[in-house]
Amino acid sequence: MKTEELTPQDYIAMFRRRWRLIVASALIGPVLAYGVSRIFSDRYKSQTLVLVEEPTVSADLVKPTDTSDMSQRLASMQSQILSRSRLEPIIRQFGLFPKDANRKPMEYLVAKLQKAIEVTPIMPMAETRARDLPGFYVNVTLDNARTAQAVCTTITSMFIQENLHLHNKQGEETTQFLAQQLTEAKAKLDDQDSKLAIFKSRFEGSLPDEQKTNLDLLAGLSSQLDAATQALARAQQDKSFAESMLSQQIATWQASLSTADTLTPEQQLAPLQTQLTTLQARYTDDYPDVVKLKNDIAALKKKIADSQKQKPSEAELNPKSTVEPQQVAQLRAQIHNYDQVIVERTREQDSIKQQIKVLQERVQSSPAIEQQFKQLTRDYQTALEFYNDLLKKRDESAMATDLERREEGEEFRVLDPPNLPDQPSFPNRPLFAGGGFVGGLAFGLGLAFLLEMQDTSLRAESDVENALRLPVLAMIPAIKPILAKKPGEMGKMPPPSRNFGLGERA
User: Contact, 448 vs 14, CB < 8 A?
Assistant: First the structure.
């Protein structure tokens, strides 16, 4: 029988032989399941729907401080709200689980309430391609309908308050953190600004943006130096020519005045003064010839002063003898003017050379100064950008925090308030009965099939061949006894005989 392949006709035959057992199991199963459901106490489920509302102000205008995923925030809030510190007051407030309150510790009651509270997020539709959760359900299952509704309302309120608290807290902490960072960034920016100002004042005129100006000034000063040098050269040539002319004029004049081999002190004084003026134009007062001439002049002046005390001066006796010709006086004035021009041009030339030296030093030191200036500027620019970025973030955080205080940011809104269940959610007795029917039917079918597999009766020719591995040679007809007649009735004819398989019961 185990090697025999069963056909649909065989299964139908099995069902006909065991239908009473199958029907009895299918009828007994619902009764037993319904009886079992009466053992459990009724439990009521209160449910509410909470939606996540978007901020009233667009996130493009005011960026929220909390940009974490909504599912993560919901899981975090769920862990905080379903903690012992938050659920224990609810158990004491509503007097939950009175049968276990005196026998079980508080940890057991809290765990039992945690199992009774279910938070189910609503997944966004695939068509919207949204990532944030649009909302969530809060389900509370307890043995009393009104208590379940009241606890569901409390838990929902806790979620709404916790969301507002988290947003406000995170916004304030973010704003305080950014304000502290902004203070430190401002101190660094002020330090970099001070360093940059000191550097600019120290190397004023040698900064990179002044290099072109320095080169232009250097070119202009070079032209001025050339012009001053040429003017000085012309003044020195004119002075030399005037001095030569003066010497000739003085020699001619002195020759005309000389009537003796010796000259008076007054006549000797004029050439010495002229010579002193010439030497002072070229040399300093410490030059030996200048010192000697000064001493000679001082001695002549003393001698003249002494002689004037004793007798009338020669100039009074002969006034025309000490008066220089007009040409000599003009030449002396020209030489004096040339000396002033030479002094001015020399001073101008020295000043231009000094300025050129300074500009050349600036130009030569410009690459090194430029490198230091770039580093300071880069550090200052980095500090400034960091400060501006922190300032912008601080302002955005302050606006977002103010938006949360006004309850205009992202918030939870109860769409469906907790319902008052009129029927218990558990146990579902019709569902239990249906499950009992399915279970009884499956049990009856399985038991019937097991009994058929253990039955070794031979009911067909194929059974004989499969069991004995031998062909069937003859068939014995089935012979049934004639039924006894009742009084007044005719005897019934026996049914026609049929072949009887081996092992078939008569």
Answer: yes
Work out the number of other CB atoms within 10 angstroms of the CB of residue 454. 8
Task: Yes or no: say if 458 and 472 are a contact pair by the CB < 8 Å rule.
Answer: no
Confidence of residue 152 (pLDDT cuts 50, 70, 90): very high
What is the arithmetic mean of pLDDT over 438-457?
A: 82
Q: How far is CA 392 from CA 5, 62, 63, 68, 383, in A?
A: 82, 11, 11, 20, 14
Total residues found in the chain within this entry: 506
Tokens of 428: 């579902």
* Dihedral sign of CA atoms 338, 341, 347, 352 in order: negative
- My answer on whether 162 and 56 are in the same domain is yes
Asked if the model's pLDDT at residue 153 lies above 90, the reply is: yes
pLDDT in tens, 209-241: 777 787 888 788 888 888 888 888 888 888 888
The first and second tokens of residue 401, run together, are 């925090």
- Asked if 93 and 70 sit in the same domain, the reply is yes
Q: How confident is the model at residue 480 (pLDDT cuts 50, 70, 90)?
A: low
- The token duo for 262 is 């010796």
Q: Is the pLDDT of residue 106 over 50?
A: yes
Q: Number of helices and strands (H, E) in the chain? A: 13, 6
CA–CA separation, 7 and 463 (whole Å): 13
Asked if 109 and 78 sit in the same domain, the reply is: yes
pTM (predicted TM-score):
0.49
Given 416, 446, 472, the domain boundary residue is: 416
Q: Are strands 135-142 and 117-122 parallel, antiparallel or unpaired?
A: antiparallel
Q: Does residue 298 form part of some domain?
A: no
Task: List, for residues 338-396, the tens digit of each pLDDT value.
Answer: 888 888 888 888 888 888 888 777 777 777 777 887 888 888 888 888 888 888 888 87
Distance of CA 267 to the CA centre of its chain: 99
Distance in angstroms (rounded) separating the CA atoms of residues 390 and 249: 88
- Is 150 a member of any domain? yes
Q: Please report the DSSP string for 419-436 in residue order.
A: P--SS-SBS-HHHHHHHH
CATH code for the domain of 87? 3.30.70.1130
Least confident of 314-318, 409-413, 456-460, 485-489: 314-318
Q: Which residues of 214-253 are buried (b: 16+ CB within 10 A; e: fewer)?
A: beebbeebeebbeebeebbeebbebbeebbebbeebbeeb
Of the candidates 252, 273, 290, 265, the residue with the CA atom closest to the CA atom of residue 332:
273
Domain count, the chain: 2
Tokens of 171: 């916004």
